[in-house]
Design brief:
single chain, RNA Polymerase Alpha Subunit, Chain A, domain 2, about 30% helix
Length: about 210
């Protein structure tokens, strides 16, 4: 949670109508925007929200039924947790999605081999290698994906965000790179929604 002073200064900027965001360049995986009429507090708040407070789905626990590969269960589970999963905006906070895998060597297992119980929550990149099985080796497992945020674990972070201030400190060039769970513009939109929700709470308190 951001400090009260940062949220308060952000609230004043938004409510006064001073802040403007202009998109300079946008692709599904990258966004560059210019923020004017803002402050270092807001630019840093947006950066932090984008990386650590936008909820995403990620594999959080794995049940192994058979693993005769050369790798420990824990190693494979860790790799599975780092595979980005598509995360619809309406994903429920208490929702769980099961991804199953049953493969036998010789073959290389890729992220696309994970079968999801929810067609909307699936691997963002089909070609991430998980493990190579030799002839006769088998891997069978169920992986549970949950919704959480990057401040809990970096595997729930949707991407990287950074900014650069102009010489006078009145404008900021903001940059977002998506890991694939959602597009870069969606990361910005969802981060702004979170800040706006916090601002509304402060505004409500200021009116009391």
């Amino acid at each position: 949670m951001l400090s009260y002073n940062i949220l308060l200064s952000t609230a004043c900027l938004i409510l006064a109508g001073f802040m403007k965001i202009n998109v300079l360049e946008s692709t599904p995986f990258m966004l560059k925007a210019k923020i004017s009429g803002s402050s270092f507090n807001f630019a840093n708040a947006l950066r932090r929200m984008a990386m650590s407070s936008v909820p995403t789905m990620a594999i959080d626990s794995v049940t192994f039924y058979e693993n005769t590969s050369a790798m420990f269960d824990e190693y494979i589970a860790h790799r599975l947790g780092l595979i980005p999963l598509k995360t619809p905006k309406d994903s429920a906070a208490d929702g769980e999605v099961l991804l199953s895998l049953a493969e036998e060597g010789p073959k290389t297992i890729y992220s696309k081999d994970l079968k999801s119980s929810d067609k909307e929550v699936k691997v963002a990149n089909d070609n991430i290698p998980i493990i190579k099985l030799a002839s006769g080796q088998t891997l069978r497992l169920d992986a549970k994906a949950v919704l959480s945020i990057g401040s809990r674990s970096s595997k729930f972070s949707p991407g990287l965000a950074t900014y650069k201030a102009s010489d006078d400190g009145k404008e900021f060039e903001f940059y977002i790179e998506s890991f694939g769970q959602m597009t870069a513009p969606e990361i910005l939109s969802r981060a702004l929604d979170i800040i706006t929700a916090n601002v509304k709470e402060i505004h409500k308190e200021l009116k009391k």
